[in-house]
Amino acid sequence: MDLKITKTEKPKQLPDESKLGFGELFTDHMFNMDYDPEQGWHNARIEPYAPIMMDPATMVLHYGQTIFEGLKAYRTSTENIQLFRPERNMSRLNDSAKLVCIPEADEAFLLHALKKLIAIDKAWVPGAPETSLYIRPTVVAMDQHLGVRPSNTYRLFIILSPVGAYYPEGFNPVKIWVTDQYVRAVCGGTGEAKTAANYAASLYGAEVAKKAGYTQVLWLDAIKKRYVEEVGTMNILFVINGALATPNLGGSILPGITRDSVLTLAKDWDIPVQERPITIDEVMSAHKDGSLQEIFGSGTAAVISPVSHLAWKDNVLTVGDGKVGPMAQKFYDAITDIQYGRSEDPFGWIVPVEEE
Length: 356
Ligand SMILES: *Cc1c(COP(=O)(O)O)cnc(C)c1O
Hints:
Blueprint: E1 4-5, E2 29-36, E3 40-48, H1 59-63, E4 66-68, E5 71-75, E6 81-84, H2 86-99, H3 107-120, E7 132-141, E8 154-163, E9 174-179, H4 196-211, E10 216-220, E11 228-231, E12 234-240, E13 243-246, H5 257-268, E14 273-275, H6 280-288, E15 292-299, E16 303-312, E17 315-318, H7 326-339, E18 350-352
Parallel strand pairs: 1-3, 9-10, 9-16, 13-14
Antiparallel strand pairs: 2-3, 2-8, 4-7, 5-6, 5-7, 6-18, 7-8, 10-11, 11-12, 12-13, 12-15, 15-16, 16-17
Helix pairs in contact: 2-3
Bound molecules: pyridoxal-5'-phosphate (PLP).
């Protein structure tokens, strides 16, 4: 497929790298591509960043038929720009697409277009420590129609946002609220897709947790309300008796790429890895008998997010000494060292963005 490129005549001012937040600023250009049943995906183009005009009856606004991805580009000390396992994000975008009846796109072409887009907006990839360029591929249903059915037309776009260090003052362990009152996803639903409905469904429970003084919710399974699933919008991992345990992917859990990277590193380091059902009761009793050593979340934005406290029913337990555990630190360092090119990449995770 051709990729048409139109560059902006009015480049924006580059932001102050020491003041970057998350997802607030966007670069000069974006990628766009359209779908209709006759032409399939077509009209692939990189053009100036701009609003998308939509009729008020556009289906995505009513029925939420939309999917997205999240990944990052990193600037190394030698001024190379590189991506971390981006082909995984492209294939997961297609996995999400299937679950909500969105037509799949050519993964290799998407990666090619993404590299081109980043090369054009290269100056926007920040270089300050632990900053990066966050990448958001998205697909939205574009038919103008009321009445629930899959759309016939779609827009796929990619936007880029320079983001600050997640932990500017070092790790910030979080307090987590466990709930059996609200659920995020159910097997047979869309929990394993990055689709809007899952995030809308998580908002109310997360607000209740915030009001109670907690940063995030720990989600339990929707049926028995016993099995641990995810924490906020991250996967969750436990260190119990020296082993790394995480819930197995059963249909309601998002298959995180950071999760997979942590598990791959653990196996490489000969740490016992268990992907299995984990009940909240097991976590509580492991805390009681002293075998619970660490809890942390994993995801692209924070990489690793250590948990200091867990509130469940009338108990508030402190994980370890409430500080960052050695495993959380070790995974964070190993992954970010590979992402920023500070260490070897023995797993072939890095994809460079060549100057084109
Ligand atoms: C994106 C996401 C994750 C983490 O996935 P990564 O590929 O590691 O960024 C975990 N859970 C949910 C619900 C997510 O949306």
